[in-house]
Amino acid sequence: MRGNELDGGVYLSGAREQNGRLFLVGVGPGDPRELTSWARAAIAGSDLIIGLKPRIELVGGLIEGKEVKFTGISEDETGSLTGIEQEVTWAELAIQEARKGKTVALLSAGDAGIYGMAGLVFEVLQKSEEKIEVEVVPGITALNAAAARLGAPLMQDFAVVSLSDLLTPWEITAKRLEAAARSDFVIVLYNPRTQHERRCWQITKAQKILSKHRPPSTPVGLVNNIGREDEKKILTTLGRMLEHDIGLLTTIVIGNSSTFVYGDRLVTPRGYHGEYSNGKWSRYL
Amino acid sequence: MRGNELDGGVYLSGAREQNGRLFLVGVGPGDPRELTSWARAAIAGSDLIIGLKPRIELVGGLIEGKEVKFTGISEDETGSLTGIEQEVTWAELAIQEARKGKTVALLSAGDAGIYGMAGLVFEVLQKSEEKIEVEVVPGITALNAAAARLGAPLMQDFAVVSLSDLLTPWEITAKRLEAAARSDFVIVLYNPRTQHERRCWQITKAQKILSKHRPPSTPVGLVNNIGREDEKKILTTLGRMLEHDIGLLTTIVIGNSSTFVYGDRLVTPRGYHGEYSNGKWSRYL
């Protein structure tokens, strides 16, 4: 149905009668406190749990007595398959097992719907014409979690850009960075380095593009290994951000023209029309 | 400290010794299953809960035996204060009560850090020079929740734009919509109508701007009253979206050039470089 023109509105149905059931579960960035009740319930109600070992270990006691399939490739290992090929095999496995009538939970870091496994599962389903019931369980993604750790940088419009060039040509990414910088979006960067080659040219180029439109003093927050034991937060500036440790698991938040630093927090005020001052809210315009 | 230049990186500290404690808690869009364990723990561990009545009712049993201050103005009521002035009084109240040594939970719909209460609290704190410990507890926001209900539209870079012109001049919003549309971001729209006047010119203008850059057949998902009992999802197109019910509590997701419809789902494939076909992943480039 790709490319189909919709004729004025499809009202979506509720649960359908189909073989098996597949939960696409976002388990948050790594801290078990960032799991939702819904994610817990989906995992607890599944027969089979599929996911990377660190994701599955995160949910601990919830998987006791259940069938578990580790996808077998951790963040630190590389196989002969590329990342996306590995993910295709997990999506296929999850669909096949649900097809047999099982209730399956496929775990994604963060939110399965934000650069996660959800889109790929629908792509595989569409091409294979399998009919199973799929429920996407939303999760806390790096943008929610990093913003909270840093303070309140996302109080205005923001753009989220992945710097990985594995699936998106760099020219498109560059164009998006340019557009977001020019129109004063707060910018959240995912995947500043790619997994396989640990290249850092992307973040260097991104910094150069953003610097054409924002001064070097623009506040920037980096959160490394978010939700994990070695989580580290750094406040820096656009001019000096490359002096800091930026790794595979760093989330970067670039302030807009009104973002400021308060103590150890990055704060974007809510809009341009007013300010809190002398104990009251004043409108500028 | 607004506008301060950072000198190359502030390494953020952990908990500090201060008077009182304030949790800024995102409670999700409305469905209690979308609360995180962290939000539950923050509420359970607080002496005083402050929030809109519907938010507080959402957390039900967690507040038994606690002091509760309803902010007294529900979504359907208007007072003599504007929305932002009301929010300032709640922020001040929460800070004052924490200042007395209490542990206070201030509840926001969705994520307190995304168009929520978090930024305002830091603005008030900065100007009043109060020192209290503030912890932002991230939550499932409309973009996570709406994307999950609709399928998997946020698998590529996306821009989040609020159409409210109460705090942001429309020219800035228009410029951002233009930039996001031109550079093939998936676009999430918050606040398509404003609370006080129930105006709809914003969404009409937004649709016109987006239509300059995307064909009328572009898939669009609307989710009304997300997380509530009367939640309703609609799949439509950019050309026909205005024929549908768009209210104060509608979240809108506009697909990019590669977003497609699969059954009753809106799916953006992961990037431009490959496709799942005939049981395997093929790279285009």
Provide an overview of this structure:
2 copies of one chain form a homodimer. Chain A has 285 residues and is an alpha/beta fold. Chain A has 2 domains: 120 residues, Cobalt-precorrin-4 Transmethylase, domain 1, CATH 3.40.1010.10; 125 residues, Methyltransferase, Cobalt-precorrin-4 Transmethylase, Domain 2 (2-Layer Sandwich). Helix content of chain A is 26%, strand content 25%. The first copy, chain A, has 7 helices and 16 strands. In chain A, the strands form 4 sheets. In chain A, strands 4-3-5-2-6 form a 5-stranded parallel β-sheet, sandwiched between helices. A 5-stranded mixed β-sheet of chain A has the order 8-9-12-10-11, with helices on both faces. In chain A, a hairpin with a 2-residue loop joins strand 13 and strand 14. Chain A is globular, with a radius of gyration of 21 Å. The N terminus of chain A is likely disordered. Chains A and B meet through strand 1, helix 1, helix 3, helix 4 and helix 5 of A and strand 1, helix 1, helix 3, helix 4 and strand 6 of B. Strand 8 of chain A pairs antiparallel with strand 8 of chain B, so a sheet runs across the interface.
Largest sheet of chain A: 5 strands, parallel
- Uncertain spans of chain A: 1-17, 74-79
**Beta-strand content of chain A:** 15-25%
Tell me the span between the first and last alpha carbons of chain A: 48 Å
Kindly provide the radius of gyration of chain A, computed on alpha-carbon positions and rounded to a whole number of angstroms. Answer: 21 Å
Question: Biggest sheet of chain A, strands in spatial order?
Answer: 4-3-5-2-6
How many helices of chain A? The count is: 7
CATH class of the largest domain in chain A: Alpha Beta
Q: Give the domain tally of chain A.
A: 2
Quaternary state of the chains: homodimer
Question: Percent helix among the residues of chain A?
Answer: 25-40%
What overall geometry of chain A do the principal axes of the alpha carbons give?
globular
Mean pLDDT across all amino acids of chain A: 87
Structure summary, number of beta strands of chain A: 16
CATH homology group of the largest domain in chain A: Tetrapyrrole methylase, C-terminal domain
Order of helices and strands of chain A: EEHEHEHEHEHEEHEHEEEEEEE
